[in-house]
Amino acid sequence: MRLTNILMLTLIVLGIFAQDLFAQQWGTITGRFVVKGVAAKPPAMNMPAAVAGVCPGPLANPQLRVGPKNELQDVAVWLYLDRGEDAPEPHPMYAPLRNMPVQISNKVCLYEPHVATIQPGQTVQFVNADPIPHNFKVEGFANAGINFLVPVNGMQPHIFQAEERYPMNASCAIHPWMNAKIVIRESPYMAVSDKNGKFTIENLPVGTHKFQIWHEIPGNIKEVTLGGKVLKDRKGVVEIEVKPGQNDLGDIVIDAGLLK
Fold this sequence. Notes:
Elements (H helix, E strand, L loop, with lengths): L1 H22 L2 E11 L39 E5 L13 H4 L4 E6 L2 E3 L2 E4 L4 E6 L5 E6 L6 E5 L4 E5 L8 E4 L7 E6 L5 E3 L5 E8 L1 E9 L3 E2 L2 E4 L2 E4 L4 E6 L2 E11 L5
């Protein structure tokens, strides 16, 4: 009798969970970051003679990458929470993704990707794809810094345990022009714009959410034009209403004057 009661209670709990999951509606947001005006590109990077054969220069500076149609790459967008606010329960699709490692590589004397996103507890594989040694030095606030040498064709795994309120800096002490940024957030609702300026954040709970917009050059993007409206916030926070299904935000315009 006791076993029967336990089974019935389990079925009831599972039924309630399934009903809640079914009742919850989800929406995906997409958008494209573009620059208004002409952004002043940082100067190309010349390689010292010691690595010129491996990493021929000059290399385009990855800190500001603007496409032929003014598409802006490497803009990070993440769910923003006010102090004391809890993140919404993520869609079940994100549970297995948290167990998948993220690779950050040294390739042709540059970091790839230049801006990476991870969650606390997720394994990061620091990979050296160059035929010369590289050093990985990562500095944060909530996480202890790391600093280790990765040999040719080597890989060093690491797990960051805490969320960072601001992107961490990654660099190579051997080759000081190399740098990248790592965004580490507890909520999986984050993305980085690709070479076409596009980003996607899948399966958000339907409702109004805040998102923080960031780029390496200025930091927080304090002004954007979205849906024909100019939005200003010193933290780079915008509110977006997420409806069921696909939510195409269109072009999110950033003035070139902010990218200095």
